[in-house]
Design goal:
Helix content: 25-40%
Strand order of the largest sheet: 1-3-2-4-5
Radius of gyration: 21 Å
Number of helices: 9
Structural class: alpha/beta
CATH topology of the largest domain: Glutaredoxin
CATH architecture of the largest domain: 3-Layer(aba) Sandwich
CATH superfamily of the largest domain: Glutaredoxin
Number of strands: 9
CATH class of the largest domain: Alpha Beta
Length: 238
């Protein structure tokens, strides 16, 4: 069934032209990738929402093919969903969370609700994190096996193209969880690990490869090390 409010984005210019048609309209941006299994059921959910809400502009965006658009919205994993009104961000949903997406769409397309009554409850105090304890935890994770890969998602279900490619690079070198010696950690499951490793390793993105407790690098660095044989040298041995 063809839906008049659902469009496959083919270029940044196409994306902008669709968005500019009505800046008062609510738009749902569905960032997906064909290799990411969690995207399959969520794409079906998005089509159901497009059919249920004809006033909703639904834009399907392949995050790999339209990487400029994905980067402009700081998309770090798929599936990811953004709700906009014109160019104003209303909501961001990361991951295959159908209830959260459905609720967000309903909220922003429904008449504006009355503000919630104020409560007398005092705001919760932020937890105090001991930086030394946190660093000890991170280093323990980095040394849990000889080779540790901090990535988005899992080898079987990566959540970003860079993580998927890193897994492929390591597999080409015979470095897999099945073969032993490799442990992976999904940083999307633990924000403190995700933010902490960026600071500890002075590296702003993922995946991050660790060998014998030492930070090696991201995808580009590891690819270069594979090409010049350096990765085999540092991985070899007990």
């Amino acid at each position: 069934m063809s839906l008049p409010n659902l469009h496959q984005v083919t270029s940044p210019a196409h994306f902008q032209s669709l968005l500019q048609q009505d800046l008062s309209r609510v738009s749902l941006l569905n960032f997906h990738a064909p290799w990411a299994d969690p995207c399959i059921p969520m794409n079906a959910v998005v089509r159901e929402l497009a059919a249920k809400y004809p006033a909703l502009l639904v834009l399907e965006i392949d995050a790999d093919e339209q990487d400029d658009v994905a980067e402009s919205f700081s998309i770090e994993s798929v599936p990811s969903f953004l709700l906009l009104r014109g160019h104003t961000l209303l909501s961001r949903i990361a991951g295959a969370d159908a209830p959260a997406l459905t609720s967000a769409v309903a909220e922003h397309l429904a008449p504006q609700a009355a503000p919630l009554a104020a409560t007398d409850a005092a705001p919760a105090k932020p937890a105090v994190v001991d930086e030394k304890d946190e660093e000890s935890r991170l280093r323990a994770l980095m040394t849990q096996s000889k080779i540790v890969l901090f990535m988005k998602g899992t080898p079987a279900a990566p959540r970003c193209g860079f993580s998927r490619r890193m897994v492929g690079v390591l597999e080409s070198e015979g470095i897999t969880e099945k073969e032993g010696g490799l442990t992976t950690f999904d940083v999307l499951e633990d924000e403190s690990v995700r933010s902490g490793l960026k600071k500890l390793n002075n590296w702003p993105t993922f995946p991050q490869l660790i060998v014998r407790g030492e930070f090696v690098g991201g995808l580009d660095v590891v690819q270069e090390m594979v090409e010049n044989g350096e990765l085999r040298e540092i991985v070899g041995g007990p």
